[in-house]
Amino acid sequence: MVVLRIRNVHKRKCALLCLCIVGFIMYRYLSVPAGGRRMSRKVGLCANSSQFTLERERFHILGGTIHYFRVPRAYWRDRLIKMKACGINTLTTSVPWSLHQPEREVFNFHTQLDLEAFINLAAELGLWVILCPGPYISSELDLGGLPSWLLRDDSMKLRTTYPGFTQAVNTFFDKLIPKVVPLQFKKGGPIIAVQVENEYGSFAKDDSYMLFIKEALQDRGISELLLTSDNLNTIKSGSVDGAIRSVKLQKLNMKDIQDLNAMQPNSPTMVMDYWTGWYDVWGDLHHVLPPEDMVSTVREMLRRGMSVNLYMFHGGSSFGFMSGALADPFYNALVPSYDYNAPLSEAGEYTPKYHLLRDVLSQYNRGGSFPDMPALHFREAYEPAIMYQHLSLWDALSFTEGPFKSAKPISMENLPVNNRNGQSYGYTLYETTITSGGLLKSGDNVRDRALVFVDRSYIGLFKRQSLELAVSDVQGRRTLSLLVENCGRVHQGRDLDKQHKGLVGGILLNNIPLHDFTMYSLDMKPSFIDSLYQAPWKTFPETPSFPGFFIGRLFVYGYPSDTFVKLPGWEKGVVFINGLNLGRYWSIGPQQTLYLPGPFLNSGINQVLVFEEQEGDYKVHFEDTPDLGMAADIQ
User: Fold this and answer.
1) For a Cys staple, 291 with which of 20, 254, 352, 585, CB 3.0–4.6 Å?
2) Residues 53-67, buried b or exposed e (16+ Cβ, 10 A)?
3) What is the pLDDT of residue 38?
4) What pLDDT does 466 receive?
């Protein structure tokens, strides 16, 4: 009897041991991303021949870019599964310094900006990752993703080894890089490559800068393959020893590709940014690239054995004020939609490009069939929100940080707000006293638009092409007010250091500089919007004044769905839903709707707040289809 019990105990121990061994093997097997079998993870991605190898086996990068900061976190999984189902094996994403470090002493890597969670999700879904940590990323962001508080240094030289810039980069990298080092391939994570800066060849003001960035990454533990990415005509000046060169393009010119291969023989050909569409600017048309053109180029690149990353695979939205601007040939601000005419639309819808691309990539998929395409989210046209209260801009000033007084106007970045980090986005109101009329001149010192008022009555607009206004000649002291909007700092080019906003110089009345300004910072941050609920709102039908805030309610019955905000009859302003800044609207288009994701809504009552500069219809519509404006093919 004792012997039998001993044998049973041994059997149970052996069974338990076997179960543990089997469980361990299954865990190791199932935890393999994209591959299909366990890799030793000693070598990583290599570029020592005409094809990439991953752990010494041939590897073809079929990549796509998605920006986690442009997609609601609740939809990260949906977008990445759709990417995987299209046949993409590698996710590329960039890190926006300006969002992660909005002030010198403030860092944010949580909720919507939880980079580690996004990368881990990619690994869970079987995607490799190429990380673009900047510090400059372009990505059509305000100042290319650089924080505006850098411009408080009057001697700042962005994207150089100027000490004020390198010290700031080191501080940011000290926070960022330790978060991603454990997520590298050789440490068991999905990151197979890291991009050094971004298209530096088009900037190239400092020969030692790229080496500084490369060493800043490696000194903090980045050990995977490094690469640079530039346009073909600037690729030499944007490279750095120890990183392979990759290119950005939309039209495939084999002569250019041959030149690239001649620069780095016996290396893979990598198109790091194949532009699947383009971005839009206010006052222009919605840019599209025909699906057949995109797919034929992708097919030709794959036929030639090139690796490719689709920029963008899914563009998403530039919520709030994060959009950039163009400076050449003249200033033009970007719209908040970053749909990009990409294979996956702004709202995560499948497009003809997606289906054609999936067909092409299926021919190159050696591991079997793709995952099923997930079902689409439901979209709904809600009943319009009727604006029932309004608040004039002048009545909202007491809720701003300030006011601040100065003999001369101060730019947004140099205002003593946000713990002395300056103002990054939004509007600034400048007021001074005048005692006569005459000719008011901006001297091209308005960045970027200014509504001008005398005793709170609108008299005209200053912008870059409109530099003079007539002021009626009335005796006595009057208040001159300029509401100046930062429409977006340029995101590329050689003038990044000159992107101060607000009033960047003097305003002249009859050629005499005005003095003694009072300034109010209206950055429209959530704390400011929340504080307005305590303001003295007035009910209709009293005639509202402009500029002003308008409030209404959207009722959602059941589970909230995606919808699109449309504002016919409104002129120009900003929309907030439950305190979240959706972005700007402007009647000049091309964009006519703002994407409102379901996760931003509550079941029941939702607050709709609109800041309108000049004219309002008092009704906000919610539709089930987007309207990005009249389309035109990219030339």
Assistant:
1) 352
2) bbbeeebbbbbbbbb
3) 59
4) 75
Task: Answer positive or negative: Cα dihedral of 63, 69, 75, 76.
Answer: positive
**3-class SS letters over 120-171:** HHHHHCCCEEEEECCCCCCCCEHHHHCCHHHHHCCCCCCCCCCHHHHHHHHH
Alpha carbon 283 to its chain centroid, in Å, reads: 21
Asked if 20 contacts 236 with a C-beta cutoff of 8 angstroms, the reply is no
User: How many CB atoms neighbour CB 543 within 10 A?
Assistant: 7
CA dist 583 and 360 (Å) reads: 36
Residue 482 φ then ψ, to 5°: -125, 115
pLDDT of residue 338: 98
Query: Which residue, 582, 601, 593, 583, is CA-closest to 625?
Result: 593
DSSP state of 107: -
Dihedrals phi, psi of 38, to nearest 5 degrees: -70, 135
Q: What sign for the dihedral angle of Cα 378, 383, 384, 387?
A: negative
Tell which residue, 500, 510, 522, 509, has the closest CA to residue 430: 522
**Cβ-based neighbour number of residue 457 at 10 Å:** 11
* Alpha carbon distance 624, 310 (integer Å): 28
% helix, strand, coil for the chain, step of 5: 25, 30, 45
Distance set, CA 510 to CA 87, 456, 478, 483 (Å): 65, 21, 16, 21
Q: Which two tokens stand for residue 136?
A: 């400059």
Structure tokens at 590: 């091309």
β-bridge mates for residue 566, sequence order = 593, 621
pLDDT for 475 = 86
Residues 6+ apart with CB under 8 A from 628: 280, 286, 337, 339, 346, 590, 591, 592, 593
Q: What Cα–Cα distance (Å) separates residue 216 from each residue in 97, 210, 221, 259, 314?
A: 15, 10, 9, 30, 30
Contact 59, 52 (CB under 8 A): yes
Instruction: Centre a 10 Å sphere on the Cβ of residue 33 and count the other Cβ atoms it contains.
Output: 20
**Helix, strand or coil for residue 446?**
strand
CA neighbor of 498 nearest in space, from 156, 71, 231, 206: 156
- pTM of this prediction exceeds 0.90: yes
CA neighbor of 232 nearest in space, from 205, 209, 252, 214: 252
Residues recorded for the chain: 635
Q: Which two structure tokens, joined as six digits, stand for 570?
A: 């409104």
Cα–Cα dist 567/571, whole Å: 8
Q: Give the chain's end-to-end CA distance (angstroms, integer).
A: 89
Measured between alpha carbons, how far is 305 from 595 in angstroms, rounded to an integer? Answer: 38
- Cβ neighbourhood burial of 575 (10 Å; 0-12, 13-18, 19+): buried
Collapsing DSSP to helix, strand or coil, 341 comes out as coil
pLDDT, averaged per 10 consecutive residues of the chain (635 residues), comes to 40 50 40 52 93 95 98 98 98 98 98 98 98 98 98 98 98 98 98 98 97 98 98 94 97 90 93 98 98 97 96 98 95 98 98 98 81 96 97 96 95 97 98 97 95 97 89 94 98 96 97 98 97 93 89 97 98 98 98 98 98 95 98 94
- How many other C-beta atoms can be found within 10 angstroms of the C-beta atom of residue 32? 13
